[in-house]
Amino acid sequence: MNIPANLKYSTDHEWVKVEGGIAVIGITDFAQNQLGDIVFVDIQTEGETLNQGEVFGAIEAVKTVADALMPISGKIVEVNPALEDSPELVNKDPYGEGWMVKIEMTDPSELEKLLDAQAYQKII
Q1: Which residues of the chain have pLDDT under 50?
Q2: CB 9 within 8 A of CB 121
Q3: CA–CA separation, 45 vs 103, rounded Å?
Q4: 3-state secondary structure of 91
Q5: Helical spans, DSSP H, in the chain
Q6: Single pTM value for the model
Q7: 65-69, strands of its sheet edge to edge
Q8: How far apart are CA 112 and CA 25, in angstroms?
Q9: For the segment 21-38, what is each residue's pLDDT rounded down to a tens digit?
Q10: Domains along the chain with CATH numbers
Protein backbone atom coordinates (compact mmCIF):
# COMPACT_ATOMS: atom_id res chain seq x y z
CA MET A 1 0.00 0.00 0.00
CA ASN A 2 1.44 3.33 -1.08
CA ILE A 3 1.24 6.05 1.62
CA PRO A 4 3.49 9.01 0.70
CA ALA A 5 5.10 10.65 3.74
CA ASN A 6 4.73 14.20 2.33
CA LEU A 7 0.90 14.18 2.45
CA LYS A 8 -1.76 14.60 5.14
CA TYR A 9 -4.66 12.14 5.42
CA SER A 10 -8.24 12.14 6.64
CA THR A 11 -9.88 9.21 8.41
CA ASP A 12 -12.25 9.13 5.39
CA HIS A 13 -9.30 8.19 3.12
CA GLU A 14 -8.69 11.49 1.36
CA TRP A 15 -5.21 12.97 1.04
CA VAL A 16 -4.09 16.61 1.01
CA LYS A 17 -0.95 18.12 -0.51
CA VAL A 18 -0.37 21.82 0.20
CA GLU A 19 1.22 23.92 -2.54
CA GLY A 20 1.42 27.48 -1.22
CA GLY A 21 -2.13 28.59 -0.36
CA ILE A 22 -3.67 25.87 -2.51
CA ALA A 23 -4.44 22.33 -1.32
CA VAL A 24 -4.63 19.46 -3.80
CA ILE A 25 -7.05 16.71 -2.73
CA GLY A 26 -7.65 13.14 -3.87
CA ILE A 27 -8.45 9.71 -2.48
CA THR A 28 -5.81 7.38 -1.10
CA ASP A 29 -4.38 4.24 -2.66
CA PHE A 30 -6.25 2.27 0.01
CA ALA A 31 -9.57 3.92 -0.93
CA GLN A 32 -9.22 3.35 -4.67
CA ASN A 33 -8.23 -0.26 -3.99
CA GLN A 34 -11.32 -0.80 -1.82
CA LEU A 35 -13.61 0.77 -4.44
CA GLY A 36 -12.24 -1.27 -7.33
CA ASP A 37 -12.36 -0.13 -10.95
CA ILE A 38 -13.49 3.50 -11.01
CA VAL A 39 -15.74 4.25 -13.99
CA PHE A 40 -16.94 7.82 -13.26
CA VAL A 41 -15.94 10.77 -11.08
CA ASP A 42 -18.73 13.32 -10.62
CA ILE A 43 -17.64 16.67 -9.16
CA GLN A 44 -20.14 19.52 -9.63
CA THR A 45 -18.85 21.78 -6.82
CA GLU A 46 -16.28 23.94 -8.62
CA GLY A 47 -16.51 27.50 -7.31
CA GLU A 48 -18.25 26.44 -4.09
CA THR A 49 -16.87 26.91 -0.59
CA LEU A 50 -17.35 23.77 1.50
CA ASN A 51 -16.62 22.91 5.11
CA GLN A 52 -14.46 20.07 6.35
CA GLY A 53 -16.43 16.82 6.10
CA GLU A 54 -18.86 18.02 3.42
CA VAL A 55 -19.32 16.06 0.19
CA PHE A 56 -17.51 17.58 -2.80
CA GLY A 57 -18.23 14.82 -5.31
CA ALA A 58 -19.04 11.20 -5.99
CA ILE A 59 -16.82 8.36 -7.14
CA GLU A 60 -18.56 5.62 -9.08
CA ALA A 61 -16.94 2.21 -9.27
CA VAL A 62 -18.23 -0.92 -10.98
CA LYS A 63 -19.90 -2.19 -7.78
CA THR A 64 -20.52 0.92 -5.66
CA VAL A 65 -20.71 4.71 -5.41
CA ALA A 66 -18.81 6.59 -2.70
CA ASP A 67 -18.91 10.21 -1.58
CA ALA A 68 -15.70 12.24 -1.74
CA LEU A 69 -15.44 14.34 1.44
CA MET A 70 -13.56 17.56 2.07
CA PRO A 71 -10.61 16.81 4.40
CA ILE A 72 -10.31 20.56 5.10
CA SER A 73 -12.52 23.58 4.45
CA GLY A 74 -12.04 25.67 1.34
CA LYS A 75 -13.21 26.99 -2.01
CA ILE A 76 -12.90 24.57 -4.91
CA VAL A 77 -10.93 26.46 -7.54
CA GLU A 78 -10.20 23.61 -9.96
CA VAL A 79 -11.52 20.14 -10.77
CA ASN A 80 -9.16 17.70 -12.49
CA PRO A 81 -10.34 17.86 -16.13
CA ALA A 82 -8.58 14.58 -17.03
CA LEU A 83 -10.97 12.58 -14.84
CA GLU A 84 -13.91 13.33 -17.13
CA ASP A 85 -12.48 11.16 -19.92
CA SER A 86 -10.15 8.99 -17.82
CA PRO A 87 -11.62 8.25 -14.37
CA GLU A 88 -9.33 5.22 -14.15
CA LEU A 89 -6.46 7.64 -13.41
CA VAL A 90 -7.67 7.53 -9.79
CA ASN A 91 -6.89 3.79 -9.79
CA LYS A 92 -3.61 4.07 -11.71
CA ASP A 93 -2.10 7.14 -10.02
CA PRO A 94 -4.18 8.28 -7.00
CA TYR A 95 -1.47 10.66 -5.70
CA GLY A 96 -0.50 12.12 -9.09
CA GLU A 97 -2.62 12.33 -12.24
CA GLY A 98 -5.65 11.03 -10.31
CA TRP A 99 -5.97 14.11 -8.06
CA MET A 100 -9.55 15.38 -7.81
CA VAL A 101 -9.78 19.03 -6.75
CA LYS A 102 -7.68 22.03 -5.86
CA ILE A 103 -8.95 24.35 -3.15
CA GLU A 104 -8.14 27.67 -1.56
CA MET A 105 -8.01 26.78 2.12
CA THR A 106 -10.28 28.83 4.37
CA ASP A 107 -8.83 27.43 7.62
CA PRO A 108 -5.27 26.08 7.20
CA SER A 109 -5.20 25.19 10.92
CA GLU A 110 -7.45 22.22 10.05
CA LEU A 111 -4.36 20.58 8.52
CA GLU A 112 -3.08 20.00 12.04
CA LYS A 113 -6.06 17.71 12.74
CA LEU A 114 -5.24 15.45 9.79
CA LEU A 115 -3.12 12.31 10.02
CA ASP A 116 0.47 11.92 8.92
CA ALA A 117 1.48 8.84 6.90
CA GLN A 118 2.36 6.80 10.01
CA ALA A 119 -0.94 7.53 11.76
CA TYR A 120 -2.90 6.82 8.57
CA GLN A 121 -1.09 3.48 8.14
CA LYS A 122 -2.35 2.46 11.60
CA ILE A 123 -6.03 2.98 10.74
CA ILE A 124 -6.09 0.97 7.53
Answers
A1: none
A2: no
A3: 11
A4: helix
A5: 29-35, 82-85, 89-92, 117-123
A6: 0.97
A7: 38-42, 55-61, 65-69
A8: 16
A9: 899 999 999 999 999 999
A10: 8-108 (2.40.50.100)
